[in-house]
Specification:
single chain, 429 residues, UDP-n-acetylglucosamine1-carboxyvinyl-transferase, Chain, four-stranded mixed β-sheet, 15 helices, globular, binds uridine-diphosphate-2(N-acetylglucosaminyl) butyric acid
């Protein structure tokens, strides 16, 4: 059981390079199945969710070669079987994308229901609705989704709610369907656009990604390609908030400032200085000693991202005044609040609304990460707090942040990863 040990109070200073986007990479890797060919992917983050996606592909017979730290070659020409094991599927949400990719190529797929962060109910009814609209028949037995189709025929798909995963699966399933598919009420996140760009670079004909209506003209086959994944908007946002919370001054490289706009706007409103380089390829964040409270309501892109809600709530705990944070996407994304309370935060939660009363400072404490972004929030709290914070269950954090503690140490933070051998500890006691 590994832990992060943080001695807080050091302002972050220096430059940090942002890695490739987790939520784009975990969609693009299964999408490579559709090529039945070699794809070279660059700017792939080295995180455990990506490793799981690669392991699933390798299990199916794909050959995977690491060309360097962030560049991989995937050859999916030899995949024969469209099954995903329970253990691998249950460890990430992105495993559900193997449904769309396998269905698109083989017209059949067997994938256990996905796992991922526990943020409340996370059904995949909209994914299934889209597969069925394209002509597939689905069955759920023993936790495994079984889909089959004689052929996939383009159609009109209207999502009842905006869903990132549903939109990704729709794109994967209809890229090679017969005729035109129109996806309405589509998600507009940067990783949807990235997936569409990747598929287009393989020969797909997709228009409108990034708007709420996407038109896909099915093509007979796709081919291999070379593609670079976009930078991670949420990793960037996390470092921006960490710089603000510690009163630091950092420059983020390998970012797309446009993707950071909802985060930048809120930080500026609180009194954080955010400077965007003229050539648009880096962002500087200059913190100060006290910020103004503000209200936040999460919403699908281009609204404030739910994946930045825990980190921003953490910054609000040390702002002047009272803020209201409303979570509109997930049922239970405030579980980390109990941990922040251990550190002196004054937060009350009623269903999907948190009322945050700013306190002068947080104090270090032993805490537990309950999911990926909750873990990131606790790191920010630990960096800003007086004294020592020990964060348990950091495997959640490693699912989505590449070398988080190394990047923070390079910015001057006092953070180390300790490996605790539970067995040894028990014997010593
Ligand atoms: N929903 C349904 N039915 C569906 C699909 C979704 O009711 O068939 C509901 C969900 O329960 C939720 C809302 O619709 O209330 C939005 O869910 P969405 O499908 O957009 O989320 P997701 O695809 O499960 C992805 C990211 C999440 C991110 C959300 C929202 C990946 C692998 N995951 O999840 O990322 O929070 O979109 O932007 O892309 C994270 O990175 O920490 C993370 C949780």
């Amino acid at each position: 059981m590994d832990k992060f040990i943080i001695n807080g109070g050091t302002p972050l200073r220096g430059e940090v390079q942002i890695s490739g986007a987790k939520n784009a990479a975990v969609a693009i890797i299964p999408a490579a199945i559709l090529a039945a060919d070699k794809c070279i992917l660059d700017n792939v983050p080295s995180i455990s969710d990506v490793n799981v996606a690669l392991e699933i592909l390798a299990d199916m017979g794909a050959s995977i070669r690491r060309l360097n730290k962030s560049k991989i070659e995937i050859d999916t020409s030899c995949i024969l079987d469209g099954r995903v094991s329970h253990d691998l599927a249950r460890s990430t949400r992105g495993s559900s994308y193997f449904l769309g990719a396998l269905l698109g190529r083989f017209k059949k797929a067997q994938v256990p229901l996905p796992g991922g962060c526990d943020l409340g109910s996370r059904p995949i009814d909209q994914h299934i609705k889209c597969f069925e609209a394209l002509g597939a028949v689905t069955d759920l037995q023993h936790g495994i989704v079984d889909i089959r189709a004689d052929k996939l025929i383009g159609t009109q798909i209207f999502f009842d709610k905006v869903t990132v995963g549903g939109t990704i699966n729709a794109l994967l399933a209809c890229a090679m369907a017969e005729g035109l598919t129109i996806i309405e009420n589509a998600a507009k996140e940067p990783h949807i656009v990235d997936l569409a760009n990747f598929l287009n670079s393989m020969g797909a004909d997709i228009m409108g990604a990034g708007t709420d209506v996407i038109k896909v003209k099915g093509v007979q086959r796709l081919h291999g390609t070379e593609y670079s994944v976009i930078p991670d908007q949420i990793e960037a946002g996390t470092f921006m908030v960490a710089a603000a919370a510690t009163g630091g001054d950092i420059t983020l490289t390998n970012v797309i400032p446009k993707h950071l706009e909802p985060i930048t706007a809120k930080l500026r409103k609180m009194g954080v200085t955010v400077e965007i380089a003229k050539d648009n390829d880096n962002v500087r964040v200059i913190g100060t000693s006290r910020y103004e409270a503000t209200d936040i309501k999460t919403a699908p892109h281009p609204g404030f991202p739910t994946d930045m809600q825990p980190q921003m709530t953490t910054l609000l705990t040390i702002a002047s005044g009272t803020s209201m944070v409303t979570e509109s996407i997930f049922d239970t994304r405030f579980k980390y609040v109990d941990e922040l309370r251990r550190m002196g935060a004054d937060i009350t939660v009623d269903s999907r609304v948190a009322v945050v009363k700013g306190v002068p400072n947080l104090t270090g404490a032993p805490v537990k990460a309950c999911d990926l972004r909750a873990g990131a929030a606790l790191i920010i709290a630990g960096l800003a707090a007086q004294g020592t914070t020990e964060i348990e269950d950091i495997y959640h954090i490693e699912r989505g942040y590449e070398n988080m503690e190394i990047k923070l140490r390079n910015l001057g933070a006092d953070i180390v990863k300790r490996q605790f051998d539970e067995e040894k500890l028990r014997k010593a006691l």
